[in-house]
Design a protein that fits this description.
The protein is an alpha+beta fold. It has a single domain, classed as Chitinase A, domain 3. The protein is about 30% helix and about 30% strand. It is built from two helices and six strands, in the order αββββαββ. The protein has a six-stranded antiparallel beta sheet with strand order 1-2-5-6-3-4. Strand 1 and strand 2 form a beta hairpin. The longest helix is centred in the first third of the chain and has 41 residues. The protein is globular and about 35 Å long. The N terminus is likely disordered.
Length: about 150
Amino acid sequence: MITRLVHISVTIILFFSIMACEKDANQDEIDHGIIEEYIVEQQLDGQFSSSGLYYVIEEDGSAEHPNLYSTVTFTYKGYYLNGDEFDSGEYFTASLNNLIVGWQEGLQYIGEGGKITMVIPSGIAYGSSGSGPIGPNEVIAFDVTLHYFTN
């Protein structure tokens, strides 16, 4: 009886795990399409990373780049793909590993003084729950200048 209950429990867990993966894969495809449309409309010249992040390095900055455990100081503007700004800040300081995954990846592509535009798919932004003014499964964009960092 216990073996049967364990088998049923494992089956249920696998089912929901597979369904979650399918939903994530579908959302990733939807986000990718949205980002591709945005790239064409805005005539951006950047590249996709393996995570789905689309980024344009406006200025490389210094040769040394932050790592995931760096403390970074930056100026940023966050906006929806329709151009409406939802947040901004000047000389904001944070541990890179405390920021959304899209930022964790993107800021490692530039050095001090570097500037980057990131179009971030929902899966590496705020996901299916959203956050504050950012809705669930929303693709968002940021313009960021990395002023300095410490390791």
